[in-house]
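Aim 2 progress. For Methyltransferase family protein, the working sequence is reproduced below.
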Amino acid sequence: MRTFEDLIDEAARVDVTGWNFDWLRGRATEDRPPWGYSRLLASRLARVASGLDIDTGGGEIIAEAPRLPPRMVVTEGWRPNAERAHRLLSPRGVQVVFVEQGQPLPFADAAFELVGSRHPVDPDWREIARVLAPEGTYLAQHVGPASAFELIEWFRGPLTRERLSRDPEREAAAARSAGLQIVDLRTARCQMEFFDIGAVVYILRKCVWWVPDFTIDRYRTALERLDAYIREHGVFVSHSARTLIEAKREVG
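Predicted structure tokens for this construct:
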């Protein structure tokens, strides 16, 4: 295996915009939930006249859909990702709208038949319900509770209170209180494997909310310990949590 310094230096230089994880091929793996969200969303987009994707990242999920509705809009709250999404999706006629996190969606009431999102930062249920057309559907894959916490707690220590957040039943209750009817609610826990310390540095640079103050210098000691662990055991194992949620806007 290459040296610790070589691995972290390489990972510190690589571009981490967007939600394409091809750089990790051969260096890390993550099992996928059984429902296949990308395919599921694509099949629904092909059957509606208007769609909205919230927190689209670099637009990768929408780009995978073979057929898009006549009106397709995506939102993103980080400008480098929004710019990436514009380059990727504008040739297909998709409107990319920059929306800062926590701000209302800049769309009319009942504007979309389908609203989707893969891993939204903080779903605003009342805004989602507002922009859905009558009988419209919200279909999303959310991050579940204590996702990747084996890795996160390696750097941050025990996070007892945080382990209780992103609870699927609480999210479903919040959706109902906003006037949505839950159609489907499923959860999955998926194994993640990291085969070198460069993969860890890359993912912490990309998923900045995992260890919000992460820098290589600040966490060098923890990185060195984890590098030694991976070299001894061949892999560091963590687990992601995912929730599939489908909801419809109630009428009347």
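The two ends are 62 Å apart (CA to CA). This observation will guide construct design in the next reporting period.
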